[in-house]
C-alpha cells in the first residue's frame, strides 16, 4: 500500500512538472492558476496520509493529463504557425537582398544625373558644331541612353500620352535637322548664349517611351530630350513645373522599406503566435480552475465526469 502511495506521488510530481513547463511557456495567468491549484491538491495528498491517494491519481487522470495534452496540442499548432511566419520573413529577406543588389538608390540617381548632364551638354555642343559645319559627324556621347534605361523604371514620373504628345510637338520650320538629331532653333540659340550649361531636371515616361527634361543654367528655361527621336525642344516652365514629378521615386528603396517594416511586424507576431491561446481554451481553463478550486471538489471528484469530458472533447476538436 505504501509503495502504491509513493508511486502515485512521484507520478503526480512528474505530471505537475509538465504542467509547470507549459504554464511557463504560455505565460498565461489562468494556466498558472490551474497549475498552482493542482500543486495545492498534490501537496494536500502528500501531507495527509489518511486521504485516499487514489483520488489524486484519479484527479490527474481525469483532469491534469487532459489539460496537458490539450496545451501540448495548442503548442504544436502554434509552432507550425510560427514556422510559416519565419518562412515569410526569410522570403522577404531574400527579396530585400535581391532588390538591394539589383536596384539603384537615390544616391546612385543623383550621381548619374550629373554625368548624364555632362553627356547631354557635350552632345549638344557637338551637334551645334555639326550643324554649323554641315557635317555628318555623329554628335552624341557614348552610351547616352544608358541613363534612362537604368533609372526610368524607378525614378521617372509617369505622364499621359497627351502630355508626351504636347511636349514633343513642333513646327518643322522652327527646327534644325540633320541625319542624327532635331533641335529647335530658339533652343540652340539659348544653349549657345549660356555656353551649353544645363542640368538634368526630371524624367518622364509613358509606357516604354521616355522624355528627359533639362534646365539651362538661367533659371526658368527648360527643354526636353526625346531619346527615341533624338529630339530637343523648349518647353514652357510653368507646364513643366505643373507636371507631377513626385515620382514613386526610389521605388525599389520604398519596396525594401516596406519589406523591412513587414518583417518587423512579422517578428512581433511570432511572439504572439508562439503562445497564442484561443478564447475558447481560456474560457475552458477558467471554468476548470473554478471547478478544482471548489472546496468540495475532492470529496466529489468522482462526480465531475462532465467537466473531464468537456476537456477531452475540446482535445479532439479542430478549433486548435
Can you walk me through this structure?
- The protein folds into two domains: 2-98 and 276-315, no CATH class; 107-249, no CATH class.
- It is rod-shaped and about 120 Å long.
- The protein has 320 residues and is α/β, with parallel strands linked by helices.
- Helix 1 runs parallel beside helix 3.
- The chain is built from eleven helices and seven strands.
- Helix content is 63%, strand content 11%.
- Mean pLDDT is 85; it is low at 245-250.
- It has a seven-stranded mixed beta sheet with strand order 1-4-5-6-7-3-2, sandwiched between helices.
In short:
The chain is α/β, with parallel strands linked by helices and 320 residues long. It has helices at 2-26, 29-47, 53-102, 106-132, 146-155, 161-167, 185-193, 237-242, 251-274, 279-292, 305-315, and strands at 157-158, 175-177, 182-184, 198-206, 209-216, 222-226, 231-235. A seven-stranded mixed β-sheet has the order 1-4-5-6-7-3-2, sandwiched between helices.
Distinctive features:
2 domains, 7 strands, 11 helices, alpha/beta, seven-stranded mixed sheet, 11% strand, 320 residues, rod-shaped
